[in-house]
C-alpha cells in the first residue's frame, strides 16, 4: 500500500484546532488510531485509506473522517493518508511527541502489573515513581523503580510530572488524589472503584475492570451479542 506524498506536507503547526469543541468520544478514539498506525507501519505500509484504517480499528470510515475533520485535512481524496505524517499529527494533538512521565500510587497486585506493563511505551509513557503505604514494600525495587512512601508524594511538586495512576483501595483513593493534585498533577487515571472528586482543572479518567466485565453476561446470556461499530 505505497503512494507518493511529496506534494502533501501537512505540518502539525498549520492545523487549526479548537480543543474545547472536540467531543470526548473523538479524543478517546485518537489513541486507537495512533496504535493502528503504529502497527500498520510495522507491517511495512506507507499509506492507508480511511476504509482500511476503519477495518483495522473497528469503526465506520465516516467516523474516522469526521474525527479528523476537527483538526484539519490530513489525507488526499482517493489516495488516503501518509501513515508517518498522520501518526506524527495525531501524536502532536495528543501531546505524545516526547516522553510523558507518570507516577503510580499503589503497588499491590494491580499496581505491580501496571508497573510491568510494556504497552505504555507505545505512547511514550514512562512510570518514573511508585508509591505505597506498605512498610514491607517501601524501599524495594520493582521493574527498576524504588517504591517510596506515599507520604513523599509532595516531593513531586515542581518536577513537572503531571500524570498519575491510582491503584489503591477505595478508602484511600480520595486522599491520594488530593495529595497528587496538591503536588501539581493535572491528569489522573483511577483504577480504584471510588468516585474521586477533583478540581475542574484536573482531568480524571476512571477505569473499573469489574464494572466493564459485569456488562458481558447481559449480552452473552440474553442472545443480544452483535457486532457494534463505534
Give a brief description:
With 230 residues, the protein is of the alpha/beta class. Helices cover 35% and strands 16% of the residues. Mean pLDDT is 85; it is low at 1-20.
Based on CA atoms alone, the radius of gyration comes out at 20 Å
Which residues form runs of ≥5 with pLDDT under 50?
A: 1-20
Structural class: alpha/beta
Main sheet strand line-up: 5-6-4-3-7-8-9
Number of spatially distinct domains: 2
Task: Describe the global form.
Answer: globular
Question: How is this structure best described in words?
Answer:
By secondary structure, this protein is α/β, with parallel strands linked by helices. It has two domains: 12-93, Winged helix-like DNA-binding domain superfamily/Winged helix DNA-binding domain (Arc Repressor Mutant, subunit A), CATH 1.10.10.10; 100-211, NAD(P)-binding Rossmann-like Domain (Rossmann fold), CATH 3.40.50.720. Helices cover 35% and strands 16% of the residues. It has eight helices and nine strands. The chain has helices at residues 24-42, 50-57, 61-69, 83-93, 109-116, 170-182, 209-213, 216-222, and strands at residues 47-48, 81-82, 100-105, 125-132, 141-142, 145-149, 163-166, 187-190, 203-206. The strands form two sheets. The protein has a seven-stranded mixed β-sheet with strand order 5-6-4-3-7-8-9, sandwiched between helices. Strands 1-2 form a two-stranded antiparallel ribbon. Strand 3 (100-105), helix 5 and strand 4 form a beta-alpha-beta unit. Helix 1 (24-42) runs antiparallel to helix 4 (83-93) and helix 2 (50-57) packs across helix 3. The longest helix has 19 residues, at 24-42. The relative contact order is 0.11.
Amino acid at each position: 500500500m505505497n503512494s507518493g506524498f511529496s506534494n502533501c506536507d501537512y505540518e502539525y503547526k498549520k492545523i487549526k484546532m479548537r480543543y474545547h469543541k472536540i467531543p470526548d468520544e473523538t479524543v478517546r478514539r485518537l489513541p486507537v488510531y495512533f496504535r493502528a498506525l503504529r502497527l500498520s507501519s510495522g507491517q511495512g505500509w506507507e499509506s492507508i485509506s480511511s476504509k482500511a484504517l476503519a477495518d483495522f480499528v473497528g469503526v465506520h470510515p465516516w467516523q474516522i473522517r469526521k474525527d479528523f475533520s476537527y483538526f484539519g485535512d490530513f489525507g488526499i481524496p482517493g489516495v488516503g493518508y501518509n501513515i508517518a505524517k498522520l501518526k506524527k499529527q495525531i501524536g502532536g494533538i495528543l501531546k505524545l511527541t516526547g516522553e510523558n512521565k507518570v507516577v503510580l500510587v499503589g503497588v499491590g497486585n494491580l499496581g505491580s502489573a501496571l508497573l510491568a506493563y510494556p504497552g505504555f511505551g507505545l505512547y511514550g509513557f514512562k512510570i518514573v515513581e511508585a508509591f505505597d503505604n506498605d512498610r514491607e514494600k517501601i524501599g524495594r525495587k520493582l521493574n527498576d523503580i524504588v517504591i517510596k512512601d506515599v507520604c513523599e508524594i509532595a516531593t513531586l511538586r515542581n518536577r513537572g510530572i503531571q500524570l498519575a495512576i491510582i491503584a489503591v483501595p477505595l478508602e484511600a483513593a480520595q486522599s491520594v488524589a488530593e495529595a497528587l493534585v496538591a503536588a501539581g498533577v493535572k491528569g489522573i487515571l483511577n483504577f480504584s472503584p471510588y468516585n474521586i472528586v477533583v478540581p475542574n482543572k484536573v482531568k480524571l479518567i476512571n477505569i473499573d475492570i469489574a464494572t466493564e466485565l459485569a456488562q458481558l453476561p447481559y449480552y452473552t446470556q440474553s442472545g443480544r451479542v452483535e457486532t457494534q461499530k463505534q
